[in-house]
Model the fold of this input.
Amino acid sequence: MSNFNELAKILAHEQKSGCKNSSVIGGVEKFVENWAQRTRNAENGAGVQQVLDALNGYAQAEPTQRNAMIQRAVSAARQFDTKPPRPAAQPKREPPRPPAPQKKSPAPLPIELRQENSPLPASEPIPELDEDDEPIPSQPMRVDFGLDAPVTKLQGVGGVKGKQLERLGVETIRDLLYHFPRDYRPVKKISELMYGDNATIIAQVSHINDYKTRNGFHITDIVLMDPTGGITAKFFKQPWVAKQLRPRQFVVVSGKVDRDLNKLSFKSPEYEPLTRELQRLLDTAHVYPVYPLTEGVKAKWLRATEREVVRFWADKVVDPLPATLRHTAQLMPLNDALREIHFPSSMGRMEDARHRFAFEELLYIQLGVFRQRKKWRQEPSRPLKIENDFLARYEAGLPFPLTGAQKRAIGEIFSDIQDSAPMSRLLQGDVGAGKTVVALAALLVAVMNGTQAVLMAPTEILAEQHYKTINNILPALAEKLGIQPRVKLLIGSLRQKEKLAAQQEISEGHVDIAIGTHALIQEAVRFQNLSLAVVDEQHRFGVGQRSALRQKGYNPHILVMSATPIPRTLALTVYGDLDLSILDEMPPGRTPIMTKWLEPKERERAYMFIRKQISEGRQAFVICPLIQESEAIDAKAAVEEYERLSNEIYPDLRVGLIHGKLRPAEKDAVMNEFRDHTVDILVATSVVEVGIDVPNATVMLIEGADRFGLAQLHQFRGRVGRGAHQSYAMLLADKSGSTSDERLKVIEQTQDGFKLAEADLLLRGPGEFFGTKQSGLPDLKVAQLTDVKLLEHARTVAQEIFERDPEFSQPENQLLKKGMNEFW
Ligand code: ADP
Ligand code: MG
Done:
């Protein structure tokens, strides 16, 4: 649509609605100013000025005067907009295009809406198009509200629509402005469509074929044509489609291009009649923005509304990024970015806009992370004294020499805890890298200083395992160090009496090292003088958990251990407030675990392989699939698997069972049997992913492996390969054909937990990666946590801002501060 037609349309609408100056957001004058800017060129300057003059003072004028003003403006505009219509590009064989039909707008409009030549090919020329049937919310002139006003302030958005929009998280006008398309589907000609494309076509309905299959399914075939070809849109069980469309009608159809007996087709695509509004949009953007929708909020309405909102409000938003920053980081200004992200003028500009928003989000994350870190470090912790020969004595008490990586990590931790600023450190290392002895060194330092320390684990089994490991190696260490630490286990399944007793001992200072689950320690324990907390998080991250301790009034040094190697981007965000120590060296003598992905039909072979290993004196794990995040349901499945294996497959072997529903004593019994080799095969639920260290176990069969993440599979298989023998992991997929899955190749080929974690993040996204709903991170709209480069850039910029203005007191950083607060 030409600029002239756009002006004429708005003014006609304004006249029709009684010259109330309400047909566009911001009012007629504002619109015309904006229009003039877009329209003015070398030739038409005088004409455009006449239009402006004609409408000057419109807001203050009486309605009767307004009518005359509009007429003057329209005739002025028409005078300079007399260029003859350009002939549309038509395929050679087509007959010359007939002149576009002229149509009078309804009285009393003095304005003729001229149909512009469409640059879009169509099997027939696109006729005069209907206006949208659902009115586009036009906005009142006098805007006495701001961006944070509720959406219902917009004309055309009533209470019901307001409620519906709430379901999209849209409450204010700002929310609407920041409700971005989730996809952009390029407009293509039918002949250009390819299988698998997400595309939009503008086409004419050729005919409609509505029928039922033999088994009663309702099918509607809409045959669509454009000058380059035809394609069918198939709709299943949607009888209303045939009623909504009629032959010869022009429609916009958008969706994924599918295939039907080798012919391309759309399956239940989105569709809507081609209206002027829509045509204008597709003319400029050449893409069809697809918005997240909800019941009652239709694509068409939302898009038109966004168009109006963007037109008026995009310029009203003040960019929170200081201009200098925007320049050095080469970011698109906010106003442009808002326009381009909704209605891109090109895909390149759209990318630039998204880049800007992504950067902004990551910047807020990083600023928040730095602020958090600063807050934590404000309150002093207790500096701990460390004897010069401590490390030498400690190592002498261990059954093995420390690896270089372990020594380095201990050194980093020691230099932290000798300081009064509280340590906030993340110790990262693959399964089996030996984190426990690193943590224990720090725990014992705390004891030697006459203070208390705590070690928290995410599950009871893991807490018990830590308790046992530490008790095993403690006597020799205690002797070398000349101390007698009192260690206490505190988990939920203890009897009430024992639990209370343990809590009391801890609070009275009779316990030096408390070991327990996160939940229990955080809820029920008062320490007498806590100086160090070690948090073994596995992959249950969360800033919240870590700060819970501090909120209890302690300010201990904190060491977080993560067994899942975290991709660098996540380490910088989720753990961005922590210093990082990495165990990148495995204790000596580990041989890589041979990993093989198997199809369901290969289960028998897997069973035979296990049998062979056991006949050679080894032991095996069978991990049951994760059914639900429910211990009860998983336990039941494990019981069934155990019965099947022990009765049918291996009646002659000793099979054991462990799951989360067993009492601690029962778990102990089973684990001891496995360790002492009175059990050959241990059937376990995925709860037991980390808890057991049995060097003689050399083979692990993981059922339902396709349901686990790579990082998690890697954790499981870390249970084998701990002894001198070659070890094996067999991953059994539930579904055949899932071997083609890329993930499987990765895990078969790499032993590097970091690489697997990166792959996991790429393939499954951060939500899945964490395995929990709550990652402790605010929602990201645009940024991808896999974008390392952008994240590092944002971090550098955040650091500069934070170093220059840690309190955010500079005027240019005020909006940044506000943005960050709103974001977190
Ligand atoms: P993770 O990092 O997975 O917590 P652990 O601390 O459980 O690893 O250690 C895994 C195994 O390696 C344990 O049996 C532990 O005793 C052993 N280990 C740890 N450090 C060394 C080392 N430097 N040399 C040999 N074995 C070690
Ligand atoms: Mg561990």
Summary: The chain has a mean pLDDT of 83. The two ends are 43 Å apart (CA to CA).
